[in-house]
Amino acid sequence: MATIGRVPEFEATKEDFDSYLERFERWLAVNEIKDGKKADVFLIVLGPTEYGLLKGLIEPMKAVELNYAELTETLSRYFKPTPILIAERFRFYQRHQSQGETVADYILALKRLASTCEFARFLDDALRDKFVCGLTGEAYHRRLLSEKDLTFKKACDIALGLELAHRDTIELSGHAERQKGVHKVSDARGGKSSQRSHFFQSRPQGYTRTKQPTSQRSKPSCYRCGGDNHQHSKCRFHNEKCHNCGKVGHLQRVCKASKRTARAHKVSDAAQEEEGTTETVVELFTVYTAQQLKDGIYLNMELAGKQVKMQLDTGASVSLVPERLYKEKLKECPLQPASIRLSSYTGDTIPVLGQIQVPVRYEGKEWTLLLVIVKGEKSALLGRNWLQKIKLNWGEIFSLRNDKPVSQDTLTNMLEKHKELFKDGYGEIQDFTAKVRVQEGTKPIFHKPRPVPYALKEAVEKEPPTEE
Question: For the region Disordered, what residue ranges are annotated (predicted)?
Fold first, then answer.
C-alpha cells in the first residue's frame, strides 16, 4: 500500500526527539499504521547511531522484544531527562533580551524556557511578568507598565508594535535626510555642502540684503589654535604637535582630521566613503606586547560552553578574540561580516575577519553578546560593550593580593634596579629642555600666595635646612 508523505531517519544532532516523535506519530495516524507494526517502523527510521544507542540502553534485551511505547519511552528518558524544576525556573527568570535580539525572538525564547517550568495556571502571568521585566529599553517599560489588565498576549502585541514603529521611524528619518540633501550643492574638493542656491530661492518677495558693518563681522580665527586675536603667522603654537593626527603646526581642538575619525575610547560613524558605505572606526587603548600578556587582569569566561581566558580592558570599545582562538573553540558560531575598523591608540590598524553572536556565561548568568574576530596573535579582550551587560565585582578585581611571599633577595634587587628613585635630595629631569613661551607685550600679573593651612603653619615658618 502506498504511503502518504515520508519521514526521514531520526538523527539526534539535527532534531529534538520530542519534535521528531510528534511528526512521526502524525505520519503513523495518516497512514493508518496498526499498533503491531509501529515498533518495526520506528526501528527502521532510527539512524545508525541512534539505533546503536538504543541497543546499549536496553541491554541485555533486544529491540525487537519491546513494543512501540517502551522503545519511545526509553529514548525519551535518555534525550530529555526529567529536569530539576528549581533550576529550570532559575534559567527562565534569568533570561533577558540580548543585545540585537528582536522582540519576536525574545518571546520565542521565553516560551521555550517556560515549557519545562510547570507553571500550570500561573503560566500566562509568569510569561507576562518576565517579558516586561526582561525587555531592554525604557520605552517598552513605560508603555507596558501604564497598561491596565495587561496579559502576556497583549504585552507581546504592544512590544512588537513599538519595535516596528521604531524601525519604520528610522527609515523615514533616513529618507528625510536624503531629501534634504537634494537642496545642497556638493563641493568636489572637500565634500562640504553649500546651500547658496537654496538660500536665494527661498527669499521672500521684496527682500533686500542689508550689508553688515565691518565691526560686527566675525574675525577670521587662527587655524593653528582657533583664537581670533592674532594671525596664524604670529601664533605661538606654530611648532606644536597635534595629539590627534600627529602633524606639527596646530592643536588637537582645531584638527580637521578629528571630524573624520573617532578618537580614543569613542565609537562613532565614520564619514561616508565614495561608494556610499559607512563603517565604524573603533580605537583601542591596548597595545599588545609580551610583557602585557603577563601583567594584565584576566577573567575566565565561558563562551559557547568553552572556557576562554580574556584580558579585562576598559579602554577597548569592543570585545575581541584572535582568529586562532575562534577556530579552536568558537567555530560553531557562524562568522558574520563586520562593519567596523579597529585601530590601536598608536594608529596601527587591526585586521578584522568578522563578528559573531556568542553565548556567554559568567558566575551563573548568561548573555548572548557580540564578539569581534581579528587576525594575528593577540590576547582575547573583554571590552566595554560586554561590561555594559556583565556586572563585575570591581572591588575584588582591584583588591591588593599577595599570593606569593616576596623574598629578601627580590626586594634587594628591586631597590637596586630603581635606586635612582630612593636617593636622598631632589631629583633631576634629564635630556629635557623646557621652553616658556610668552607673547610679546604681555604684562606681568600679581597673584596673592595661597594661605597656608593652620595645621602646617608652624612647620612652614621654620627656616628650611640649608644644603652643605
Answer: 176-219
The Cα–Cα gap between 228 and 382 comes to 45
Q: What is the mean pLDDT of residues 242-254?
A: 80
Given a cut of 80, whether residue 187 has pLDDT beyond it is: no
For every residue of 16-33, DSSP letters joined together read -HHHHHHHHHHHHHHTT-
Find out whether 339 and 318 touch, Cβ atoms under 8 Å: no
Helix/strand/coil for 259: helix
| R_g of the chain, CA atoms, integer Å | 35
349-376 per-position pLDDT tens digit: 788 888 999 999 988 889 999 999 998 7
CB neighbours of 352 closer than 8 A, spacing ≥ 6? 338, 340, 341, 342, 372, 373, 374, 375
State pLDDT tens for residues 140-160. Answer: 898 899 988 999 999 999 999
Angle between helices 68-79 and 48-58 in degrees, nearest 10: 100
Farthest CA pair distance, the chain: 117
3-state secondary structure 81-142: CCCCHHHHHHHHHHCCCCCCCCHHHHHHHHHHHHCCCCCHHHHHHHHHHHHHHHCCCHHHHH
* Number of residues in the chain: 468
Q: Give the pLDDT confidence score for residue 281 in this predicted structure.
A: 44
| Omega of the bond leading into 351 within 30 degrees of 0 (cis) | no
Is pLDDT above 90 for 127?
yes
Q: Regarding predicted confidence, which is higher, 234 or 81? A: 234
- Are the CB atoms for 79 and 71 separated by under 8 Å? no
The phi and psi torsions of 287 (rounded to 5 degrees) equal -115, 125
**In whole angstroms, what separates CA 200 from the centre of its chain?**
47
Each residue's pLDDT tens digit, 251-262: 887 887 744 444
Task: Count other Cβ atoms within 10 Å, centred on residue 224.
Answer: 22
Phi first, then psi, for residue 183 (nearest 5°) are -80, 0
d(CA 213, CA 210): 9
Angle at 306 (CA atoms; ends 330, 381), nearest 5 degrees? 70
Would you tell me the crossing angle of helices 68-79 and 17-30 to the nearest 10 degrees? 160
- What Å distances lie between residue 55 and 9, 74, 138, 336, 345, CA to CA? 17, 10, 55, 41, 61
- Whole-angstrom CA distances from 82 to 56, 72, 117, 183, 185 are 20, 15, 11, 67, 69
